[in-house]
Amino acid sequence: MGFVVCAAARIGSGKRKISRRQQRHELKPRTKPIIRRTDENSKDVPLEAELTMAVQKMLAIEKLKRSLWESTGREPTLLEVAKIRNTDVDTISRYLDEGRKSRHALVEENLRLVSSIACRFVGRGVAIQDLVQEGACGLVQAVEKYDASKGAKFSSYATFWIQKHIRQSIYNDSRSIRLPRSFQDKLLHLKKAYKSIFDEYGRIATLEELSEATGFDQKVVEHLIVASKSVQSLDMPVDGDGGQLVTELDRTEWEGCGPEDTICREMIREGVHDALNAVLSEREKEVILLKYGLSTEGETRSSEIARRYAISAAGIRKIELRALKKLRTSNSLQLFLGAV
To answer: How far is it, in rounded angstroms, from Cα 269 to Cα 195?
Structure first.
């Protein structure tokens, strides 16, 4: 009966039943947050300066340990470090532990800043996950280099290092064939000028307009336009016959000429051209190339060659025989044929 009355009284009072675990949790004093929030009314939270000071103490101890390791050839103990700093082992251990926790807290609290900055660089050839990872590396470097006595906010200081690491990642990893950083800066400047001209006039900019807007020479602009083209992989699927997806390598092999054959053919053609240039005159070389199909036009009849040079077919035949005689006694051609 007494239990029923107590339960009815508890329900009638409108109070929520609290377990012993919840009571212990509410009675336990809450720990202070380790990062200063934007709420200025909270006065009992530590500043970022205290955290960075703890990080600097940890870095100083780690630097001392590295120097001792280099001098002694082994990892120093905390006792040796404590003797050099005129303190005890517990203090050194506490500095290291507090420094690591403070660094982790600063990095974890500012990861949203990294994400917001990385989103600005999306679409430049690097995945957003890689941009965030590089930005996090820059954030760690900012935590280790930040000096609160300079008066700058940590977020402003960290933004510089985050952007620096992200830009460096774009410079190194955005293209299959890496371009020099100065060249990529010019290319970015050219793209901005192209976009501004397109937005203003609604048409594609000419070379003269791009050269005037960027201050570059027209040849430099042409070179930048060629370099801006992306490199496509031969393994990238393309549409084949019947809607089937194939690669460029498969298509080349189906056409009867594999990539190895193409490279060998081009090398042989270049070697033949070099050998002909070393022995024959310009007209003799052109006649041999056309007659035996060594040019891109394929084999050409003597009558067509004679019509092109406005001489008789007998004259073309004499030029051919004279060129063949030179080639038979040529050392450069013999060396090339022996190498092949």
So the answer is: 43
